[in-house]
Design goal:
disordered N terminus; mainly alpha; about 170 residues; single chain; elongated
Amino acid sequence: MTHLRAKTIAVSLVAGLSLAACGDDGGGESLSKEDFIAQADAICADHGTQLDAIFEEAFAEVDETDMDDPQAAAQQYAGVVADSEPVMRDQVEALRALEPPEADADELNSQLDALDAAVTEFVDLTEDGAAGDEAALAAIESDVDPFAPVNERASEYGLRVCGSGN
């Protein structure tokens, strides 16, 4: 895996985690779509900054030649993903706490389910690659992005920061 591919996956991770979705705990008044988007995008920006810092620090001193061995790269990358997983899970919970517009609750909850699954798939993929699993290494090398469908749905909903990949 090249350093560029690792950074591409890192950017995809931040983008994927920037999907806004929410829970319906019935405890509060639902937000308007505009307010929901504004609050979700603020959560995404905050957590995206945290994730960027983790990935930038981890890859600041990585030599491109160190990333030529797919398993060695996956081992380094798995450590970064393990460090970032708590931030990923915290973001999901922060987004769950938002009260979605009533008309959009089912779609947004479906998006949150997809985000949860993508986070798990991403973590598992990096762990399996670090352990030498050939299928996982091939997926990592091909830049498989479990967050792409989640990002697309977020963008279609109208989110500007969440799911943007920036």
